[in-house]
Description:
Largest sheet: 9 strands, mixed
Number of domains: 2
Distance between the termini: 31 Å
Amino acid sequence: MALYDDFETDISFKYLEKIVKNLESPLCILGGWAVYFTVNEHFEKEWGRKYIGSKDIDLGFYIEKDLERDKLINTEFGRSITRLKELGFQPLGFRFFKDIKRETGEDLTLEQSRKTLLYNIFQIYVDPIVNNIHPSFKEIFGFKPIDEPLLSLVFQDEKNRTEIEEFNKLLWLPKPAILLATKINALPTRTKDEKLIKDICDIYALSWYSGEEFNQIKSEILAILPNFNNLNLRDLQSTEVLKKAGIGLGINAELIKTVLKGLLE
């Protein structure tokens, strides 16, 4: 049984392309799509099928800590928020969304959504993520975005990112160890739902199919997160999550357990 509905990941990929083509380049991609671009070639070579896509779109932005308040609106983050709204994405807390009609795949306006049955609506989310929260975010943009301090590594040193060309645009991806570290950081906030299962799938895939040696990745993670709470990983080895992750990837759950165990040794 697939972890995600193909319709949902196909729609997400379609809008990822649209967003990439409409925002400034290079654009930093995080989350599930960053994992997909990082591991898909090697995963597909071994298993004969593509790696799991993502339902959400995560974008990374760099904000200088001492940036003057008046300059915040004209950062890449500020310009991207304006463009997302122009593309029809609506703000919802710290993220943006768009309603899609499942039957046809067409965009729905807010008025159309009100007249459409809930089962026939798929919501696609875009999460703008920053390396640090500027004190004027709420005042200027009306919300505080998600922050991921490890993004600073990606923007400040080219050795910490991979550059790829996708949709005829330059994209930045965090190096596998940094992307893996963000997944490990997210585990304490996950309940035992599909997001947690997807995180476990991604941790396994990044550890084994990124094209980099496992021991090298493990060494880099310890350098990035010297005090990370590895009990988050250890506890998961005795739950049903591994079985669900195995089903989602179409592989034996013991393979995932072995990789998680290797990260802890």
